[in-house]
Design goal:
The chain has a single domain (3-222), classed as HUPs (Rossmann fold, 3-Layer(aba) Sandwich). Helices cover 41% and strands 11% of the residues. It has helices spanning 12-23, 41-53, 84-87, 99-114, 136-149, 151-154, 170-180, 202-214, 219-222, and strands at 3-7, 27-34, 57-61, 118-120, 160-162. The protein has a five-stranded parallel sheet, with helices on both faces. The longest helix has 16 residues, at 99-114. It is globular and about 50 Å long.
């Protein structure tokens, strides 16, 4: 069975992406990264999920002491109570400079070592976050760079970067996850952390909208 490295934050999108990898016949290896974010609630969710699935799970840690994001610096306030128009207006303070490039580089290193055929990445360009490193053209360019700069690439071993959710709405992601049997109660989306979702950060608002439009109860809110 072909192997896939699945970047798993523990959030909704990355979890659905992992389940897509399984549905496509890949044997998933999860990779979660502690990069000094505000909380580790998502990574805890990821650990619970992979424990249930009994799949390999790597944990990596790195430091970004320069911060530059509300997800890294508690002095920067998280956006609250914004509608979609406000979210789509500019790159938000929750953008972490270079994060996805770092994550994908680590995933490629893992893929080379594990001799994986693919990297699954839960990037989504339609969630109004405005992150430049979630766009299809970025992922295509990054894949080209990795083929030029890795032993696997120059040796003819192609590692494909797959972003199955890239053009989906949150509603479609929820519906696909439901079809694949994703245990939504093991996912976490809130930027603020805590014991329950804050309900007012951008991530909470987009998640709630997706579940509402899909007609699926969010178990985190029901609980």
């Amino acid at each position: 069975m072909k192997k896939a490295i699945c970047l798993l934050s523990g959030g909704l999108d990355s979890t659905v992406s992992l389940y897509v990898a399984r549905s496509e016949g890949y044997s998933p290896v999860a990779l979660s990264i502690d990069y000094g974010q505000r909380h580790l609630r998502e990574i805890s969710a990821a650990r619970t999920l992979t424990g249930r699935l009994k799949i390999p799970h790597y944990f990596a840690a790195l430091s970004m002491p320069w911060k530059g994001s509300a997800l890294l610096d508690p002095k920067i306030k998280l956006p609250r109570d914004r509608d979609e128009k406000m979210m789509s207006g500019e790159i938000p303070v929750t953008y972490v400079p270079g994060r996805n490039s770092v994550f994908l580089s680590m995933a490629m290193s893992c893929a080379e070592t594990e001799k994986a055929h693919a990297i699954f990445f839960g990037a989504n360009v339609l969630d109004y976050s405005g992150y430049p490193d979630c766009r299809p053209e970025y992922l295509e360019a990054f894949g080209d760079a990795m083929r030029l700069g890795t032993q696997a690439g120059v040796g003819g071993w192609k590692v494909e970067i797959k972003a199955p959710l890239i053009n989906l709405t949150k509603k479609d992601i929820v519906l696909w996850g439901q079809k694949l049997g994703v245990p939504f109660e093991t996912t976490w989306s809130c930027y603020a952390g805590g014991d329950k979702p804050c309900g007012v950060c951008d991530s909470c608002i987009l998640r709630a909208k997706g579940f509402r439009e899909a007609g699926v109860p969010d178990p985190l809110l029901v609980a």
